[in-house]
Amino acid sequence: MLGLTRKDTTILLIVTVLALGAPFLLNPFPISSPLAQFNAGYPDLMQRFVIFGIFAIGFNILFGLTGYLSFGHAAFLGVGSYAGVWMFKLLGMNVIPAILASMIVAGLFSVLIGYISLRRSGIYFSILTLAFAQMSFSLAYSVLTPITGGETGLQLSLNDPRILGQSVTPDGNIPVPSLFGLEMGENTRLVISNWVFTFNVGYYFCAVILILAFYLSIRIFRSPFGLMLRAIKTNQTRLNYTGLNPKPYTLAAFVISGMYAGLAGGLMVAMDPLAGAERMFWTASGEVVLMAILGGAGTLIGPILGAGFIKYMENIVSKINETILHNWFAFLPDGLEDIVVSMVYPFIGKGWHLTLGILFMLVVIFLPGGLVEGGQRIGRIFRRKKKKETGDGSGATTVNPAE
Amino acid sequence: MGILEVKGVGKRFGGLQALGDVNLSVAERSVHAIIGPNGAGKSTLLNCLVGKLIPDTGSVLFDGQSVLGRSPHEINQMGISRVFQTPEIFGDLTVMENMMIPCFAKRDGAFEMNAIASVLSQRDIAAKAEEMLVEMNMADKRDMHASAMSRGDKRRLEIGMCLAQEPRLLLLDEPTAGMARADTNNTIDLLKQIQDERHITIAIIEHDMHVVFSLAERITVLAQGTPLVEDTPDNIKGHPKVREAYLGESTAAA
Question: How far is A244 from chain B (nearest CA, A)?
């Protein structure tokens, strides 16, 4: 289907179902249950899942295929955000031009940074990209304040021209981002007994773009261009002695992934028209590296899983506080309860980074292929059991279920 | 005039004169071997031919055009392919994917980097790569990871990848180094077959005299960065200067 193999079509369908069904899938617990705090089906968080998913997919095109580890990808996200807000300020509140501008500006910016950084490879490339990103962050924070809003960030105001739209709504407010009149912040609630499902226009807009972006990344992975990128990762010497110059390929991959980051930045401001310099800080760049590795770098679906996993942890684990812990362990005798709570406490709330760090270490040590490899291993165990039960003792170990 | 003309090439690494004054002419459609003891400058010479190193003095002409100052991929596009001492293949890719890359790189006799044309010609490229694998007798290994193969098979694949580009000159850097006898003999047969069927020029650096004497039509002996003699294999065998360079026998004592 759509020029994909059966296996790739299945992966695309899984992502489509996950993205479109997220308001249900992420809301498994009724609001009255104590587990409701683990629900992640509210628009704000779901939008973040999807936007960071797009960011990680783009990062994976560079890192997963060519092996070039960029440590400054958040710079493109930040530049994209600024470009989006400027479009809102100058042109109007339609999200389409804003997102296009985000991608184009981030693309141009990545041509510049990529052209310089790709002169080196390995750790020097990483350091160069990190240096550029930190430079962009500092500039946005200080000298470029007229363009970026400096410390307060770039915000919309009532005095913006918005030549294709209105500067002020009839009731005197700043207009909100919309898709041809359909406001991004609009919600529809569906109440089924104890469950409340929220459908948000902005979320579905992001989800559709995620599916398109994911489809494009599958096509890139499977194309001759993707083959060349994988060849670069394996052996640049041989590629050179095959009469090919690797540089245009790496630069193209860098720009494509920069544009994905710009797209993510544009979507961020389409959901919430505010851009700040902290989006370009190196921790944001590091986060996308974690997402790709945790999910499985070089795999198709890995970065999306990684992005979802980290954003879930950030928002849900960090919300657990001491009172909730006491409730959980209330069944223990008093003294023991305090001890257990004090032992678990460092890993929750503000300590969620500690949990993330430990999980990251475990994944890198025991599952170098990330969550995707974990899934494959579990799948293999089940298949082996099935084979034993059916008494198929042919001993074939290389059966590929997709064929 | 030969297809490859090396004139007065010298290369110095700090205090070490790796190549003195090398003159070499490789005739078109011949098999030319370059032999010499360790440290004689064989690999340095080869690196100068493919653009990995730039010689300090002298000139290197391929088919009348200078190769100096060009980058490795440009020299490759002129028609020089190189096989490395340790097989340089795309280890993480399958054998088929390995073979497809040179086929993508050179389509219809020209080097191209057009992404859209690549997508459109994908089927033809796959067919050509498959054909090449059959010719190299590796079709049954097409879905194997290249890094999982034996050294002999890796070498075979590397040679196949070079041939897929239809080069005019094939440079081989110790193609049988570290190989078992059977693999060595297979490689010799393969190279003979290539020479018979494709009539391309082959320049080979080799340690193993068995390989050299079963393939080469002319042999150049290098010692301490300068060519000692150049002659046919029969004349080289008993040459006193060669015995001196290899065995350390002084000519006077012999």
Answer: 5
DSSP code for B145: B
What is the domain-level CATH number for residue A139?
A: 1.10.3470
Residue A318 lies in a domain: no
Domain ranges of chain B: 4-247
Only one residue has tokens 């205090």, namely B15
Q: Please list, in sequence order, all residues whose beta carbon lies within 8 angstroms of the beta carbon of residue A308, skipping any fewer than 6 positions away.
A: A49, A53
Kind of pairing between the strands at A154-155 and B31-35: unpaired
Q: Which residues of A58-90 are buried (b: 16+ CB within 10 A; e: fewer)?
A: bbbbbbbbbbbbbbbbbbbbbbbbbbbbbbbbe
Q: Which CATH class is domain B4-247?
A: alpha beta
The closest alpha carbon to B53, from B66, B62, B44, B41, belongs to B44
Q: Which long-range contacts (CB under 8 A, 24 or more apart) does A33-40 make?
A: A33/A194, A34/A327, A37/A316, A37/A319, A37/A320, A37/A324, A38/A316, A40/A312, A40/A315, A40/A316
pLDDT of residue B69 exceeding 80: yes
Spell out the alpha helix ranges (H) of B51-164.
72-78, 95-105, 115-120, 122-135, 151-163
* A396 pLDDT higher than 80: no
Strands B169-173 and B201-205: parallel
Domain extent, residue A131, equals 6-281
Spatial separation of the C-alpha atoms in residues B250 and B248, rounded to whole Å: 6
CA–CA distances in Å: residue A328 to residues A124, A338, B114: 48, 11, 61
Q: Is residue A403 part of a domain?
A: no
Contacts of B82 in chain A (CB under 8 A): 241
Q: What digits encode the pLDDT tens for the residues B128-152?
A: 999 999 998 899 999 999 999 988 8
ipTM comes to: 0.89
Number of domains making up chain A: 1
R_g (Cα) of chain A, nearest Å: 23
**Is A338 within the bounds of a domain?**
no
Does residue A230 come out as left (phi exceeding 0), alpha (psi in the -120 to 50 range) or beta? Answer: alpha
With CA atoms as reference, the chain B residue closest to A249 would be: B113
Chain A residues with CB-CB distance to B88 below 8 A: 235, 237-238, 241
Helix (H) or strand (E) holding A376: helix A370-390
pLDDT for B235 equals: 85
Question: CB–CB of B104 and A235 under 8 A?
Answer: no
Q: Considering only A105-109, A170-174, A207-211, which range has the smallest mean pLDDT? A: A170-174
